């Protein structure tokens, strides 16, 4: 799945809520309404930071382009995209998630992580909304980074392909020059050979028909 498709899918998902916030409230005759589920897109729109459609990396060369097999400097990408610095990042939340036993049911892991965030939130202002928004904005930045890299790559490839075509044209011209030169050599060699035979006829005419003479021993043609 492409980065943009991952982002679109994520935006359409509904967020998980902490377990029964209403039950944790002091007893009263007033019943707290059940919170309306919100999509990730709605949550991101409600948190401080750039709107998703505003996240881009401009037209300057992409930051931190890795060598083949390497990974980009994601922090440089996020900084270039203007993402806000948050007290608890999506990557840190991922560390908490991965620290839990993989065989725990997903519901148990969610409640555990949410409880951790609630505890941290009292001291650091950390919450599920902030983590979801950080992850989503970073996805948008990665999608923009991918678009920028694709554009740069296509421009570079077009330029190099033009250079290759020019070199191929030059190679074809040089090959033609080589063929013409060889034909000139062949023609000149034949002319020289023909002329050498004519001059040899002069020498043969005024010399004896012995030894190396082509007329020695009754050659193909007798001298007049």
Describe the structure.
- This protein is mostly helical.
- The chain has a domain at 3-25 and 35-155.
- Helices cover 60% and strands 0% of the residues.
- The protein is built from seven helices and no strands.
- The protein has helices spanning 3-12, 21-24, 40-46, 74-80, 90-99, 106-124, 128-205.
- Helix 1 packs antiparallel against helix 7.
- The longest helix has 78 residues, at 128-205.
- It is rod-shaped and about 130 Å long.
- The model is unreliable at 19-25 (pLDDT under 50).
Characteristic key phrases:
224 residues; 7 helices; mainly alpha; rod-shaped; single chain
Number of helices, where a helix is a run of at least 4 consecutive DSSP H or I residues: 7
What sequence of helices (H) and strands (E) makes up the elements?
Answer: HHHHHHH
Q: Structural class, from secondary structure content?
A: mainly alpha
Mean pLDDT equals 86
Topology, element by element:
Blueprint: H1 3-12, H2 21-24, H3 40-46, H4 74-80, H5 90-99, H6 106-124, H7 128-205
